[in-house]
Amino acid sequence: MNELEKILGVTFPNNTVITNATNTTKKVKKNSIFFGLQGTKVHGSKYIEEAIELGASVAVHDDPNLKINNTDIEDKIFYIEDIDDSWKEVEKHEKNCVFINAVTESDELVYISNKLLVFLCALNSSCRFISRSLETGHYVIPSFNGFTGTNGKTSSAFMAHQLENSFYADGTDFQSIYIGTLGFQYYEHNDHYYENNGMKATNFDTSISGNTTPDIFEIFEILRKISDDTLNNNTTESELEIYKEVSDDEYPFYQIPETTINIEISSHALDQGRLKYLPFSKVALMNIGSDHIDYHRTINEYEKSKLRIFDLVHKNGKKYIGINAINTESKVFKEYLAHHEMPITIGFEDKSADIYCEISKPIKSGKENTFKITRNIPWDDADIYINSHSLEIEYACKIFPEFNIHNLVFSIVMTSDSFMFPNAECFYEPEVGREEAIAIDYELDEDIKDEDINSYPVKLNKRVQLPPGRTQIISDIPANVIIDYAHNAESFDFFLSSIKDSYEKLVIIFGCGGDRDKDKRPKMLASAIQHGDKIIFTSDNSRNEKFKDIFNDASEGNDIKDVSMIEDRKEAIIHGAKLINKNDCLVILGKGHEETQEINREVTHFSDYEVVHEIYK
Predict the structure, then answer these.
(1) What are the φ/ψ torsions at residue 224 (nearest 5 degrees)?
(2) pLDDT tens digits for range 29-43
(3) What is the pTM of this model?
(4) DSSP secondary structure string, 73-84?
(5) Is residue 547 classed exposed, middle or buried when 0-12, 13-18 and 19+ CB atoms within 10 A define those classes?
(6) Closest listed residue to residue 117, CA positions, set 308, 279, 250, 312
(7) Rounded CA gap, 616 and 406, in Å?
(8) Cis omega before residue 343 (within 30°)?
C-alpha cells in the first residue's frame, strides 16, 4: 500500500485494502478506490458518499468545494488537487513516471508523468501488459495508436489491429489489441492454433464498456481481463504459481510483450478528455463530416473536438491527417495551425500530399484490387530500415469499395513501418531466411531475384478483412445483400456511390436514430433517394421519439414518391428482399454489427444479419 500512497501523496487508514479503481458507482465493489472527477454534467465528487456506502475502501477527488455530510467517513476521503491533470513529458530522473514500450524509429524513451496513470499502473502491476524497468523503477506501458474521423475509424483501427498481428504471426510475444465500437479483441498465442501460426482472434467483448471509446479506468480493466484470460489459457499450473508469487515490487515473471493498442477515439471522448492521461505514439484524423451535432451543438465545436486528437501525441509520435479531412480555410483549422505544425498529410487525389495513394480502377467486389502508396517526405532513420530507399510500394487486396481502401491505407500507415517499407532489412535476417521472408508478404516464385521484389505488389488478402457490419456482403445466400453501419449523409454518399455501378438496381433500407441530431435526417434520406431506386424508411433505435415524427423530419424538403415507410425493421427487410432481382442489391444501412434495437426505452435483440439469413434459409 505504501507505493500507492506515495504516488497520490496521501496516507490511507490502517488496514486499507485496494484491489480495483473506478470513477463510477456502477462498478464500485468491496476494496475499490473511487475517483470523484469532473464529469460531462456534474462532478463525480457528488457520488463519493454513495461509493463508500457501496463498499469502496477510500475515495479521492479534486473538488475544493466538496462538503461531506457523513463525518464518520471523512478519514476515507482525500482531496488531491492535480489528480485530473493531463499527462506531461518529464526527464528520466523524475519520480512517478511511466515510459512507452513503443516500437518506434527512435531508441529514445519518452517519460510521462501523470498521477492517475502511474497509480493505475502500480495497482495493476501484475498485469502482463504493464511492467517495470529494472534500471529506473519506472512503469512501462504499451504503445497506443488512435483513430478518429466521422467515418471509417472502426474499419481502420480494426484492420491496423489485423495487420500488426499478421506481421508478428510467428508466435513472438507481440500483441495488438483492438478497442472500439465493436468492443475489444486480441489474438491468443497458442501452439494449438496450427492453422494461423499459433494465433487465434477472440470474440469481440463488450462487457466492460458501452462506449466507442472507454475511459482510462475501463482501458486498464480491459488490459487486466486480457492478461488474466491469456495467462489462464496459455500457462501451466506451475508457471501460474510462480507468477502469482511475484510481489508488486519485483519485475514481473512475464516480461511485457511489445504491445500496440489500436483504439477508436470518438468526438465525445475527445471533448470530455477521457484519454488525456494517456500518451499516444500515433494518431490519425481521417475525415470530418457532420455528425453528433445534438451533442456538440455546432460544426465548429465538432471540428475542435476532432483536432484535440493531436494533443494526445508524445514528442516521438506521429500525427496524420487526411488532406481532405477538413477545410483548411476554416476558422477552426487556421486557429489550430497558428499554434501547431501541419500534421503529416495523406491524400488520394492530391499528389503533393506527404503520403499519396493511387488506386487502380475499376474497383470490383470479390476481385483483387491494387493501389500504390508514394512517400513524398523523408522517413525517420530510413537508412536503417530500408535497403533500396524505395519511395513507392504497391499493394493488392480484396477490400471493396474505394472508401474502404482509403481506410486500409490509414491502417497501413499507422502500423509497423515494415508495412510501409516491406523490403526492410528485417525481412532478410539470417535466422528468417529469404524464402520465409518472401512468404510473409509476397506470393512469388522462388526464382524471383531479391532486387526485383519491389516490382510485385504486397499481398494483403490473407492479412485483412473488414470488421463485421462494414460493407458486409452476405455471400452464403442466393441474393445480393449488403449490410453497413453508415449512419450519416456523408457515409451514405461514400458508400452508395461506390457500389451503385456494380448493380442494376439498389433497394435501400435505413432509419434515423431517435433523440439524436435531427438536422442530418433529411440529408440522409436525400442521399438515399439520389443513389437508390427504391427506399424503405424504417426504425433504427427510435428511443423515446415517435417513429412517424422521425420520418416527417427526414421527409422535409425531399420528394418521397419512391419512399415506403415500414416501422417494423424486420418487416421492412422482408419487403425489401421481395423487390430485388438477380442483378439488384438490397442495401441495409445504419445498424451494421449491432444486435439490439431500442424503442420506447426497451432494448430488445435484433440483428440485420440474422433477419437476412432467416429470409433465405
Answers:
(1) -65, -45
(2) 999 999 999 998 899
(3) 0.86
(4) GGGGEEE-TTTT
(5) buried
(6) 279
(7) 32
(8) no
